[in-house]
Specification:
CATH architecture of the largest domain: 3-Layer(aba) Sandwich
Strand content: 15-25%
Oligomer: single chain
CATH topology of the largest domain: Rossmann fold
Shape: globular
Strand order of the largest sheet: 5-4-3-2-6-1-7-9-8
Largest sheet: 9 strands, mixed
Order of helices and strands: EHEHEHEHEHEHEEE
Number of strands: 9
C-alpha cells in the first residue's frame, strides 16, 4: 500500500494561523485518485470548528451507509477514544466522501461501538490501547482493496506515520504567507532525519507552489 502525506502549509512550515486554499488543496488531493483518505479525529474536530456553523442534528439518512460514486475515496478515521461520537455524520454528509470507516482499538468504549453500529458505520479493530496502524493498513488493504491512501491530517498523526516508516511520499501545497512568531510546525515531532527526493515542483496561480517528495526509508 502506498501512503501519501498531503498538507497545506505556510512558507515557514505552519499548518495553522492562515486561511488555506481548500479548493486547490482538494484538487491536488483528488488528482492522486486515492482509494482512501486517512484523517485524524483531532483534524476533524478542528475542521468542524473552523468551517462549520455548528453541528447539525442527525437525520434519518445519517443512520445509513452512503450510496455514492465508487470513484470517491473512503474516509478512514482513527478514533479509539470515541472523540467523534455525535460528530461523525458531518463527515458522512460531505459530498466528496464515499463513506466513513472508523479505526478503533480493543480499549474503545462499548458505548462508542454501539453508537457506530446503530448508524451502520464500518469499523476496524486494530491494536490494544491505541490504533496499531500496521494492522489497520493490512485490514484496509484486505477488506477494501485500497492500494493508495492519502493522509490529509494534522501534525500529530502525520509525524507519527513518518516516525513509524509508513509514509512513501510527501505532498506539500506551499501558501504565499509567512506566519512568523505564531507557527504550528508541520514536522515538529519528527524523530529523525529523512532523506527526501524531489519528484515534482509546480507553480500555481497567485504564488502557490506544489512540491512532491518521495521518502527514502
Amino acid at each position: 500500500m502506498k501512503l501519501i502525506l498531503h498538507n497545506s502549509i505556510s512558507i515557514d512550515g505552519s499548518l495553522t494561523n492562515f486561511e488555506p486554499n481548500m479548493g486547490l488543496h482538494y484538487k491536488i488531493a483528488g488528482s492522486y485518485k486515492p482509494g482512501g483518505h486517512l484523517i485524524g479525529s483531532n483534524t476533524i474536530i478542528a475542521g468542524i470548528k473552523m468551517y462549520g456553523e455548528g453541528v447539525p442534528e442527525e437525520g434519518t439518512s445519517d443512520f445509513k451507509k452512503q450510496k455514492r460514486d465508487t470513484s470517491l475515496p473512503l474516509w478512514f478515521i482513527p478514533d479509539s477514544k470515541g472523540l467523534l461520537q455525535g460528530l461523525l455524520h458531518t463527515c458522512r454528509q460531505f459530498e466528496f466522501c464515499r463513506d466513513v470507516i472508523v479505526l478503533i482499538s480493543e480499549s474503545t468504549p462499548d458505548t462508542y461501538i454501539k453508537h457506530l453500529q446503530e448508524r451502520n458505520y464500518d469499523f476496524l479493530i486494530a491494536g490494544i490501547e491505541k490504533v496499531d496502524f500496521k494492522t489497520a493498513f493490512d485490514l484496509i488493504s484486505e477488506k477494501y482493496n485500497v492500494r493508495t491512501i492519502l493522509a490529509d491530517t494534522g501534525s500529530i498523526l502525520g509525524n507519527l506515520l513518518l516516525n513509524h516508516g509508513f509514509v512513501d511520499e510527501i505532498s506539500l501545497l506551499i501558501h504565499p504567507v509567512l506566519i512568523g512568531i505564531r507557527p504550528y510546525p508541520v514536522f515538529s515531532e519528527v524523530a529523525k532525519n529523512f532523506r527526501l527526493i524531489l519528484q515534482k515542483s509546480e507553480i500555481h496561480e497567485d504564488g502557490f507552489v506544489h512540491l512532491v517528495y518521495t521518502v527514502e526509508q
